[in-house]
Amino acid sequence: EGPAAAAAFGAATASDGSQRSDEQTPAAILRRQSTRLEDGSAPLDVPHATVLSLGQLRDLVEQVRGGEAEDEVWSLQTIVQPEDGLRVVSTYSCDGAGKEKSEVFARQYHRFYAIPPQSLTLPLPEAVAADGCVEVPPSRRAAVETKTLSAVRFASRFHGLDFEGLVLEFVFDAGGGAVLHGCWCAT
Fold it and tell me: How many whole angstroms separate alpha carbon 56 and alpha carbon 59?
């Protein structure tokens, strides 16, 4: 509450660094489960991300403060706009013999994190395939692989979790740093 809350919900930084008040400014990402495919088929138990504007974020916070119940598990994160317009996906796997494998590829950020947000539907497999992968420069690939392996080692050492598979998403911020943006799957 107070000035900090007003600043968080009332102003956003424009790309030129100036402050602006705009209800439609992207402010957060809401992650939920149980979405539908674009063809309208039955709900799936998969994660889905929706970009929230400042106004939508304010409404959600007010609902939570007011005690309105949510039927689903959800999480909320701040928006980190990638400097290169890409989201970098890192897939880690480890077989029964302990052999580790890593795949890193990128896709267009705006195709998944639509601004303004679209309906809570997942794209059909054909649409995902048509998106195509983008080559990740070697230095960024190395940074993402290092961070992925660090997450695997951290989970094992401090939480006793040993992954057979892990899918993480990163974006590179304006300073060129790799930011963990989401965890899509862990087995």
Answer: 5
Same domain, yes or no: 130 and 179 = yes
pTM (two decimals)? 0.73
Q: Which of 23, 50, 78 is the last residue of a domain?
A: 78
Q: How confident is the model over 81-95, as pLDDT tens digits?
A: 899 999 999 999 999
Q: Which long-range contacts (CB under 8 A, 24 or more apart) does 59-66 make?
A: 60/30, 61/9
Digit-coded pLDDT (tens) for 44-69? 666 778 889 899 999 999 998 988 87
Identify whether residues 62 and 134 lie together within a single domain.
no
What are the residue ranges of helices labelled H in 76-137? 109-112, 125-131
- Full domain range(s) for residue 48: 3-78
* DSSP H/E element including 5: helix 3-10
Residue 113 shares a structural domain with residue 27: no
